[in-house]
Design a protein that fits this description.
Blueprint (H helix, E strand, L loop, with lengths): L3 E10 L14 H17 L4 E5 L1 H6 L1 H9 L3 E6 L18 H19 L5 E4 L8 H7 L4 E2 L7 E2 L4 E2 L8 E2 L14 E2 L11 E3 L3 E3 L19 H15 L4 E8 L10 H20 L2 E4 L2 H10 L1
Parallel strand pairs: 1-2, 1-12, 1-13, 2-3, 3-4, 4-5, 5-9
Antiparallel strand pairs: 6-7, 8-9, 10-11
Bound molecules: zinc ion (ZN).
The site of zinc ion (ZN) has 5 residues, from loops.
């Protein structure tokens, strides 16, 4: 098993943008088009994505998301408390007191359940915003795993600080979010390049770049990044660290174009897809296309 790389493509499915400078597609329909394009690109290579979906969208288009699930995609909840239509907040999740986090997550779980008929079990917060109470609250609400962390990113105004966070699959800690612990919540962190120094992104944060196609708020990078080199660095560092379960997690957004010669995001995605097999072959690793559920089950069986 240690010579398998579990590859997880994920998408944060955002509601349509209501003001500029906020991520999200121009309409729900454009967002669903992006999902189908992304899905088609991945299927050609044998991958299935995990979608973290904002609750309003599940409620508005339940059939669309039910179909994705039927086709074997992972489906979880995504919540930006700043964008939550039912109770919009001034800050992202990590800036809220425990009772308020619980209330808003509970509301969004109900919306998800109303649309799909099942409670969400996977979670990723908007902007990877969380504090030391978040994992415990997620467990109280029945979540069993997700991608809450982006190791080392510092974006204080979004309440996203993951300095020193353990970067591989682990059980979350009940009181210190950066450490592995014993909560029944399997954290599968976003893959970032820890081999290069922390760098400043003009959007306003410090980070190690990740493989997302395009920039944070636009089709093109704020600072250009060679995706193939990034992939190489991430996997070489992982080989050296040799965690018991190796995962490559790629995040995309539903406001990018995943097809077409003219799209930088489409080219970035292809560069990652083209690189995975040869990089793994060089390391003697087998590639296994996975969803979050697949890896959670694998981790818990271990
Ligand atoms: Zn988001």
């Amino acid at each position: 098993m240690s010579h398998t790389l579990f590859v997880l493509f994920t998408m944060d499915v955002e509601p349509c943008q209501r003001k500029s400078g906020v991520s999200g597609p121009v309409s729900d329909e454009a967002g669903m088009r992006a999902i189908l394009d992304f899905e088609n690109v991945l299927r050609l290579r044998g991958y299935r994505a995990t979608y973290f979906v904002h609750p309003e969208l599940i409620e508005a288009h339940p059939e669309f998301y039910r179909n994705l699930r039927k086709e074997g995609c992972g489906l979880g909840l995504h919540l930006h408390t700043t964008k939550f239509s039912v109770a919009p907040q001034a800050c992202e999740l990590g800036g809220l007191a425990p009772a308020e986090q619980h209330r808003l997550l509970d509301l969004s779980v109900s919306m998800f359940e109303k649309g799909l008929g099942i409670r969400p079990r996977l979670f990723r917060p908007g902007c990877f915003s969380a504090n030391d109470d978040t994992y415990r609250i997620l467990c109280d609400l029945g979540f069993c795993g997700g991608g809450v962390s982006i190791p080392e990113r510092i974006w204080t105004e979004r309440f996203c600080i993951w300095s020193g966070a353990y970067p591989y699959v682990h059980l979350a800690h009940r009181s210190f979010r950066q450490c592995p612990g014993d909560l029944p919540f399997v954290e599968i962190p976003l893959s970032v390049d820890l081999t290069t120094p922390l760098r400043y992104n003009p959007v306003g944060f410090y980070h190690h770049p990740d493989l997302r196609p395009g920039g944070v708020y636009s089709e093109t990078d704020e600072v250009p990044v060679n995706r193939r080199a990034l992939l190489h660095n991430i996997l070489r560092r992982m080989a050296a660290d040799n965690p018991p379960i190796k995962t490559l997690v790629v995040d995309v957004h539903n406001d990018r174009h995943f097809t077409g010669e003219g799209s930088q995001a489409a080219r970035d995605l292809q560069a990652v897809l083209d690189g995975i097999e040869p990089e793994c072959r060089a390391l003697g690793w087998k590639v296994e296309a996975s969803t979050y559920e697949d890896v959670i089950q694998r981790f818990l069986r271990r």
